[in-house]
Write a structure and sequence with these properties.
The chain is an all-alpha fold. Helix content is about 80%, strand content about 0%. It is built from five helices and no strands. It is elongated and about 85 Å long.
């Protein structure tokens, strides 16, 4: 007879401890600020890479043309248009993400209750999803994938702090 109450008590104790393990982790404002900084830094690095890539591509093309190393091939107007649209799509998406992270920072710094900035984090996630789609469609190379991988990880960490669904791979 005494075994049943002990067994029931043990089961309830295990469920209680398990419930504590599933409880949401509470973050401090300093921890969140660090995660936001990582996202901002990642956006800046990715944008810097995109700008350098465009400048490097133009200078390489001019150098090749001047030295006669074009192998007799020149890009057609449609190929140039596709390349420009592809570049513009990534630049626009990165610009949107930069604006949303800046907006998040402006709203986050003066507030005492960081959870009030959840809508701004949702906006960052929406803009990041656009980049995720652009990266999936385009072939930007391993360097772009590395920058995006680091940035996506930082954004996902931030999303988890706000209990939001992280980006897919």
């Amino acid at each position: 007879m005494m075994k049943k109450p002990v067994l029931v008590g043990a089961i309830l104790a295990c469920l209680g401890v398990g419930g504590i393990a599933w409880a949401q982790v509470v973050f401090t404002k300093v921890q969140l600020a660090d995660r936001i900084r990582k996202v901002e830094d990642g956006v800046d690095e990715f944008r810097k890479w995109a700008e350098n890539r465009a400048e490097h591509g133009q200078s390489s093309a001019q150098t090749a043309k001047a030295s006669g190393r074009t192998r007799g091939r020149t890009a057609t107007e449609s190929q140039k248009a596709v390349a420009k649209d592809k570049k513009d799509e990534l630049d626009n998406a990165l610009g949107d993400l930069n604006r949303s992270t800046n907006r998040l920072r402006r709203k986050f710094d003066p507030t005492d209750k960081w959870m009030e900035t959840r809508p701004q984090v949702e906006s960052v996630l929406d803009d990041a999803r656009k980049i995720n789609q652009v990266m999936a469609r385009g072939k930007y190379g391993t360097q772009a994938e590395r920058y995006w991988g680091v940035l996506r990880t930082a954004i996902n960490d931030l999303a988890r702090c706000y209990n939001l669904t992280p980006l897919g791979v």
